[in-house]
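[SOLVED] Need 3D model of a two-part complex

Original post:
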Amino acid sequence: MKILVDAMGGDNAPLCVLQGAADALREFGDGMQLVLLGRKEVIEQTAKDNGIPLDGMELVDCRQVVTMHDDPVKAARKMTDSSLVRGLTMLKNGEGDAFVSAGSTGAMHVAASLIIRTVKGVKRPALATPMPGFKQNYLLLDCGANVECRATTLNAFAVMGSVYAEKVMGRHSPSVALVNNGAEDTKGTPIYREAHGLMRANPVIRFAGNIEPRDVPNGEVDVVVCDGFVGNVILKLTEGVAKSLLGMLKDVFMQSVVTKLCYLGVKGGLRTIKHKMDSEEVGGAPLLGTARPVIKAHGSSKAKGIKNAIRQARLCVEGDLCGTMEAALAELQTDETRAEKSE
Amino acid sequence: MKILVDAMGGDNAPLCVLQGAADALREFGDGMQLVLLGRKEVIEQTAKDNGIPLDGMELVDCRQVVTMHDDPVKAARKMTDSSLVRGLTMLKNGEGDAFVSAGSTGAMHVAASLIIRTVKGVKRPALATPMPGFKQNYLLLDCGANVECRATTLNAFAVMGSVYAEKVMGRHSPSVALVNNGAEDTKGTPIYREAHGLMRANPVIRFAGNIEPRDVPNGEVDVVVCDGFVGNVILKLTEGVAKSLLGMLKDVFMQSVVTKLCYLGVKGGLRTIKHKMDSEEVGGAPLLGTARPVIKAHGSSKAKGIKNAIRQARLCVEGDLCGTMEAALAELQTDETRAEKSE
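Solution:
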């Protein structure tokens, strides 16, 4: 198995990418080869300066670097010698089995849509993010790639999320819920009501019905589906409320000598909560619906984040994520056609 | 000033309504008369049993009670002898200056739309909720009354929210932001992009631009505008994330004898946070856009919640909220007409 890694993407590239790649090879490198894309001399010098072994890694020299300031569409179309475009092109041509990058989400989304075809039944890939939940993590999609969605698109997201939850997150018979402003079937906009009906009748998912936003952070369901506008609100508001609350908590602990002592007693536990609420710790966000596996690591990923994203990529390849997803979507379409004919 | 109070609405009615009403009269009853609507004998017996003085309160006997299980539209149309419908009818007829209820939000929204006319430029009233923010509370609208909104409706919400923030929340020259998945003008759905343009050109508000959901809980802006679907997500997810985090925190404090002792040291501070995050503590949610002031207290309000809702009602009357809102919306419309003519 060959995993393509964008060595120049992300706030801490290339150092943390190299560290994460080396850690990945050491921890779960059996039968896995990594291909690092980027400025060859920068990669080699960084590795040398920091004593990072490059054994088992192939280097592909690319002269361009896509930054957060580059226009996504222009970058995807014109920067053909960038680690992003070269990596995705190699993936398309079968010169690698998965692609991992911590670079610009926008450019990656556009480039993946342009270079790699999407599976049948999906027009644009969805950004799925594993989110912190009280019981356990849940997969949220779409997180902002598609601000407007049809009901059929939401239904396709449900299938894609289910397949990912099963194949990569290891959830058995994952449950899927649709975000809505009430538990009843009649709630929401016409699109959400229609999506509810489609998901209810969808034979390839285990539909748990509507989920109220209040219950989303419980982590009781495995996959939470919504359009990209709402998903972006959930993603960022979760982070914002947690930050605001932890800020209030800090103020409480700073009040007096006694409260400062109390802080020392629960410091470890508080750090665990902070990590749990930190999206970086959870790992990368897959772009679902592409014909080959593409994993977006958090822009501010450290070595651990990169390592975890590579692990996700490995699981995607091993579980034949894209093939399974294409089959599941095809089954859904056959079923829809059959239903239409029998009507 | 006469404030109409639904004595039968809410989970803790009539006891907590009577207590809250009595507290309101004691604390800020100068020149204020309260009219309690509900089953007269139940009100009188409850007051007697609990030693609550009914001085300064007028009783209006209504035989029907709208419950959470009643269909909102049917309740609003047919339950003409309910405290809800009678109260709103009295408000419409000028037999009171404001109406307060902790009963069914749905029934109240429908009944208010049917019985009380809306101010010019508003088709359906919006539910506005004061939300907990890190710096200070902010007003969120719409919170779920209108799941789909046009750009002009969002712009009208901005005006309504501004007037409320100034007249009732006491904010000087309140700032208004539009929820969006990015700070740039070009972000969001076509409706949100159009709303951004309208709000940018709106002379009667101080527009702070788009606000990312991550920054909403900071409480840096006074009014946060979005459609009812997104507003419902923000309202309920804020509650859900806070609950989930406080649950994790509880687990941390329960780990050992030491952590339990630490809990005792910061118990007071934690209670303050919990109260701050608790929507009940913040007060009632006004229905904005009705021609006369209507305040929805939280369904699970205790005496304090009812008292605060009555205080809000008083402030609405004193500040001539509805008149000011109508004037501000009229100015906006004149401005729009003028702009259209000059084009």
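Edit: Chain A has a mean pLDDT of 91.
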